[in-house]
Amino acid sequence: MALSLSDFTKFNNIVVQCHDNPDADALASGYALTTYLKSQGKDVRFVYGGKFPIQKANLLLMTERLEIPAEYVTSIDKPELLITVDCQYKESNVTYFEADNIAVIDHHQVSSELPAMSDVRSAYGSCSTILYELLQKENVDINSDINVSTALYYGLMTDTGGFAEISHPADKDLRDFAKFKIDDILMFKNSNLSREELSIAGDALNGARYDDEYRYGIIEAAPCDPNILGIISDMFLEVSGVDTCLVYSILPFGVKLSVRSCIKEVRAGELASYLAEGMGGGGGHMYKAGGLLKKDLMEKASIPYEKESLDKYIDDRMSQYFKDSEIIYASNHHEDISQMSHYVKNPVSVGYVEASKFAKPGGKITVRTLEGDVDVDVEEDLYIIIGVEGEIYPCTGERFKRSYQKLSDPYVYPGDYPPTVIDMEDGARISLLPFAKSCLSCSSSGVFARELTNRVKVFTAWDEHKYYLGTPGDFLAVRADDTSDVYVINREIFYKTYTPAED
User: Which of 34, 111, 151, 405 would give a disulfide with 440, using CB separation of 3.0 to 4.6 Å?
Assistant: First the structure.
């Protein structure tokens, strides 16, 4: 059964605990939970342990300005319920306290067996986002308490490198929905860098490594707060001749990465994901991203966790990314279909939405899905297709009539995160599913396609500003009735929706 905050209301004596040496996300999520429990009339304390109380200037300001009642403790009386937030019970960075019952709310990887009351969402960028959604579930508007909404906004911001590493749509929802006190946010941000950290940034910039052919740079920084890496990479990207950059720091538990790009041919989030593939995780958006190479995974891969080996791994990985990536601009690309196989589309039931039902023609909307945001210009005859795994793509009315047959069956969404639409003019949010209907793919002409053996980035005819990525095993496809329409199809989706044509 999914966890609800109301599950905690059967207890009276409750302690909310975040990890030792708490960061902004831990303070924010603990604060939001504590505020909710107090509103339910519960006797609740918000605590943290460790060797020292909070010392960082921005966090001291955060607790003071937002009135966060976080207590530094070395011991507590045994409560009925102990809830750990932004961490997991008995982890090495969490002071051990006994309790009659344990609950966990966290966004990190599961480190050990979880208690029955737990909600761990490792794909989320912050624990603040989980609290935002859990409060929504209880019909609590976070914006009804500006201190709570400001805290959650700042918690997400700091845990995602200034929103640079956001990839999950739920994180984007919190970022876009939360109201915040701008003066406080600016004060916290501008109290984030100590003199020692300023020296670290200066020393790091002096040791930059460059690749003139692909116009990228790499910097290693001394161990520091991950947000400092973002400051360094922002500065590095301003250097003439550097279109893409990577800044990293070797820490005891892994190598923290900060990635920046100022060109459309390199999406920072995609590069960060590539660099960390198989060794941890990475993500973000077009221009800013971050990631982590985990020490234990690198050692399992027989990569010695020492500076020389790590430097070489990072240099080689960065070089390989640029050398192995093929870029296709569909508007002026001619694909040799004689080297491709002909496939026809299976009669698969998918979803469709007529954009004019909820948006004015001539406007712009963003469709938010688990795979990312899709920006769409609204035309009179625009259809939005919802694919077999919840993927979204636009379709003209003419093409819809050629390729799909409307059905009377109700539409059932196959994914985990229901797509929403954001009106780019006024910021209004609209759920797409109430407008969705079923249709049957029935194109007779099909596509010509070939399996990819390398990374390919395709700028499609309908979006010249954002590429669609194909990796080995995916398929590059060309519509048989329109050879200017070149795009990438995920391997699993391809085999679900296409079969070889009987030519």
Answer: 405
pTM reported for the whole predicted model? 0.68
State the amino acid at position 433 in one-letter form: L
Q: Which helix (H) or strand (E) holds 198?
A: helix 195-206
Which of residues 155, 188, 221 is at a domain's end? 188
Q: Same domain for 96 and 214?
A: no
Domain count, the chain: 3
Per-residue pLDDT, 1: 43
- Statement to judge: residues 387 and 461 lie in one domain: yes
CB contact set of 332 (below 8 Å; sequence gap of 6+): none
Q: Which domain holds residue 432?
A: 333-500
Residue bearing tokens 């107090």: 38
> Position 303: which residue type?
I
> How wide is the angle at C-alpha 152 spanned by C-alphas 28 and 227, nearest 5°?
80
What the block records as the tokens of 440 is: 């049957």
Distance CA 37, CA 163 (A): 28
Q: How far apart are CA 103 and CA 134, in angstroms?
A: 14
The crossing angle, in degrees rounded to 10, of helices 24-39 and 57-65 is: 20
Q: What is the DSSP string of 319-371?
A: HHHHHHEEEEEGGG----GGGSEEEEE---EEEEEEGGGTS-TT-EEEEEETT
Residues 182 and 262 in one domain: no
> Are both 39 and 183 inside the same structural domain?
yes
Partners of residue 345 on adjacent β-strands: 498
Q: Taking residues 193-207, report their average pLDDT.
A: 87
Q: Structure tokens of 220? A: 């290693």
Q: What is the mean pLDDT of residues 408-412?
A: 91
The answer on 269 and 294 residing in a single domain is yes
In order of 308, 336, 428, 491, the CA distances from 476 in angstroms are: 38, 12, 35, 10
pLDDT band for position 371 (cuts 50, 70, 90): low
CA distance to 70, 336, 393, 445, 494, per residue, from 333 (Å): 59, 10, 21, 21, 22
Compute the average pLDDT of residues 295-323. 95
DSSP 8-state assignment for residue 129 = H
Average pLDDT rounded to a whole number, residues 126-143: 97
Strand partners, 283: 290
* Separation CA 177–CA 429 (nearest Å): 9
Rounded Cα–Cα distance for residues 389 and 438 (Å): 14
* Rounded Cα gap, residues 139 and 232, in angstroms: 41
Give the domain CATH number at 202. Answer: 3.10.310.40
Find all residues with CB under 8 Å of 55, minimum gap 6, and list them: none
**Two structure tokens written together for 174:** 């919190």
| Structure tokens, 116 | 């029955």
Task: Name 384's bridge partners.
Answer: 353, 394
Interatomic CA distance for residues 95 and 112, integer angstroms: 16
Q: Are residues 86 and 215 in the same domain?
A: no
- 205 and 102 fall within a common domain: no
